[in-house]
């Protein structure tokens, strides 16, 4: 009885980790703009909701611009630009996190 229970739990853990791999593969498909896709959680055809988040590169860009153009007060500019921000995608239907697009280049 106990052994059967443990086997069942192990099977569930394997199934869960397999699902995580599938979701991670889906994460790679998102870009910087909202995309139409089938939500892996609620299986609805949705247009992702993109949230622009400040990344470490946003702060770095602000620091560099601040040092070079401090007299223009440019240091606050990157916070309003999408260019240096990570983009997190959420499902508008079930509000689950779908994936993140990370900036690779500063300029
Ligand atoms: Zn969903």
From TrEMBL:
InterPro entries per the UniProt record, alphabetical: LITAF, LITAF_fam
UniProt keyword list: Membrane, Metal-binding, Transmembrane, Transmembrane helix, Zinc
Keyword Membrane: yes
Cellular location(s): Endosome membrane; Late endosome membrane; Lysosome membrane
Protein origin, superkingdom: Eukaryota
Any GO molecular function: zinc ion binding
A GO term from the CC aspect: late endosome membrane
Membrane topology reported for the UniProt record: Peripheral membrane protein
All copies of domain LITAF, residue ranges: 19-103
Chief localization: membrane
Membrane-spanning residues: 60-81
Keyword Transmembrane: yes
Family under the similarity heading: Belongs to the CDIP1/LITAF family.
PANTHER family: FI16615P1-RELATED, LIPOPOLYSACCHARIDE-INDUCED TUMOR NECROSIS FACTOR-ALPHA FACTOR
Name used for this protein in its record: LITAF domain-containing protein
């Amino acid at each position: 009885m106990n052994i059967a229970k443990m086997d069942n739990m192990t099977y569930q853990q394997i199934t869960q980790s397999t699902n995580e791999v599938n979701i991670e593969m889906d994460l790679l498909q998102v870009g910087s703009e909202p995309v139409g896709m089938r939500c892996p959680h609620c299986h609805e055809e949705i247009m992702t909701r993109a949230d622009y988040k400040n990344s470490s590169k946003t702060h770095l860009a602000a620091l560099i611009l601040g040092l070079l153009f401090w007299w223009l007060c440019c240091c606050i500019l990157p916070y309003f630009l999408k260019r240096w921000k990570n983009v997190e995608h959420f499902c508008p239907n079930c509000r689950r996190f779908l994936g993140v697009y990370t900036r690779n280049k500063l300029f």
